[in-house]
From TrEMBL:
Entry keyword Nuclease: no
Listed Pfam families: UbiA
Compartments where found: Membrane
Membrane topology, record value: Multi-pass membrane protein
UniProt protein name: Prenyltransferase, UbiA family
One GO CC term on file: membrane
Transmembrane segments: 121-138, 195-214, 244-263, 269-287, 308-327
Main location: membrane
Source organism: uncultured bacterium Contig12
GO molecular function: transferase activity, transferring alkyl or aryl (other than methyl) groups
Keywords for this protein: Membrane, Transferase, Transmembrane, Transmembrane helix
Amino acid sequence: MSAEKQAKMKFLFHRKDGGCFRERDGQNEKRKRKNISSHYASGSLDQAVFYFPGSGVRSLYDPGSTGAVSFAVHSSWFFLSTCLIASANYVINEWLDRDFDRFHPVKKHRSVVENSADPKIVYSLYAALTVAGLLLALPVERYLFWMELWLWIMGILYNVKPFRTKDIPFVDVLTESVNNAIRLLIGWFVITNDFFPPVSLVLGYWFAGAFLMADKRFSEYRMIGDPQVAGLYRKSFRMYTEKSLLLSSFFYAMCSTLFLGIVLSKYNVNLILLMPFLIGLFCYYFWISYKEDSAAQRPEKLFHEKGLMIYVLLLIILFLVLLHVRMPFLSVFTSKDLVPVR
């Protein structure tokens, strides 16, 4: 018997009251919804909010770059467009992953895994969300349309064969996190299309997304607790180990802080003081990923992490304070001159 078949047998007969499948009471109760609403449950809208930092940073560079009414209209329009494209990507992701998700202790309860969905309905929903999202972006701003199209293409590359980058170790993280950079660009172009954002900002945001995705995989890998079963759920897990996932997370976090440090110091030297607290945010997230059934696996659960939300709020307050306080002594960090001994 092959190792893969042995792992499948081990999964099927594994006790559900211990080991890698520690489930909450009542979680194993089957949901019987088999109507069209189960398909809509596949569409996740939570990650569309990641485009707001792009708008915020662009406004800091030029506070008068857009009016309040113009921003509200453009922001609402493209938030909806981004939600639709993101939902289309989630629909195709969950549909194509349904045979793999049954090996995950939580995802096996998704509607597309438990229920017999009609492929025609799924693909029709996917097409409708895609067309609606692109049509919303098309008449308003061409740069934003291209960003939405890019976001959709990344969903194809990540999920659909023969590309399916999600099955390739490290490439899966880097390609999935490109969506983070795209959302930043969408937020930026909502404000203006006169300038591109700083490259260091885009790279910093991209690597921050890579950190989140690697940490998500690290938390999933630890929860499953069996490399063979983990490989059945996600093919890239056949090459990953806890150590490689942890080290890659550190690498992405350090790259992110490097590039974000560059853009912050160029914009306002005071923001150098923000960096230790930003590094602390990465450390805090590492700590969350070590929890059992960690919120790092499902971003929508992060809002229930009160400590993290308080930390982020304090970080935003510190950011705003540093923008409006004069600290001339910090020029020592940006000056090209050496400090004389005498």
